[in-house]
């Protein structure tokens, strides 16, 4: 796993073979971040990374200048790996939280400029995640939510849909919070 660009550009982290997480490929990550530059100014932004897995997206967000990144991951070993990566980078810009994403979102009182979610593709609650995030009001008005999912889901009819991108087997759907979804 490598950081694509920013202050930690080129840094590599070896993911233990025992990990169950499927990290976003470097190819897909680089392409989706290229798209995101039209929508998000990461410099000084507050970001939330749900289902963080290996922390690849969290580390990329920190490298790109986010002021704060909250990284939520339930798996103990994955959470520990994220902490180790942050220690190697000597950064306090990321707050790794070990916990259930659904409980976190339901109790969250903070708003973010950018939210990324990469749940397990087989998660039965996967289709409800965009509404959960957008209706809870944790995304600031005009904030961007990127949802990574498998090919079996289509969110193009969602009222907050912006666009869909596919890179190999990786699908990203982008949503924008409106005044109505942030109330």
List the helices and strands and how they pair.
Layout: H1 26-36, E1 46-50, H2 56-63, E2 68-73, H3 76-89, E3 94-98, H4 101-107, E4 112-117, H5 129-136, E5 139-149, E6 161-167, E7 170-176, H6 179-182
Parallel strand pairs: 1-2, 1-4, 2-3, 4-5
Antiparallel strand pairs: 5-7, 6-7
EC number: 2.1.1.171
GO molecular function, one term: 16S rRNA (guanine(966)-N(2))-methyltransferase activity
Enzyme class: transferase
Overall description:
The protein is an alpha/beta fold and 183 residues long. The chain has a domain at 37-151: 3-Layer(aba) Sandwich (Rossmann fold), CATH 3.40.50. Helices cover 28% and strands 26% of the residues. It contains 6 helices and 7 strands. It has helices at 26-36, 56-63, 76-89, 101-107, 129-136, 179-182, and strands at residues 46-50, 68-73, 94-98, 112-117, 139-149, 161-167, 170-176. It has a 7-stranded mixed sheet with strand order 3-2-1-4-5-7-6, with helices on both faces. It starts with 25 loop residues before the first helix and ends with a helix.
The low-pLDDT segments are none
Q: Indicate the CATH class of the domain at 37-151.
A: Alpha Beta
CATH fold descriptor of the domain at 37-151: Rossmann fold
* Residues in helix, %: 25-40%
CATH homology superfamily of the domain at 37-151: Vaccinia Virus protein VP39
Series of H and E elements: HEHEHEHEHEEEH
- Give the overall silhouette: globular
Secondary-structure-based class equals alpha/beta
By CATH, the architecture of the domain at 37-151 is named 3-Layer(aba) Sandwich
Strand order of the largest sheet: 3-2-1-4-5-7-6
* Biggest sheet statistics: 7 strands, mixed
Beginning-to-end CA distance, first to last residue: 38 Å
Q: If helices are DSSP runs of H or I spanning 4 or more residues, what is the number of helices?
A: 6
Share in β-strands: 25-35%
| Number of beta-strand segments | 7
Overall pLDDT: 94
Radius of gyration: 15 Å
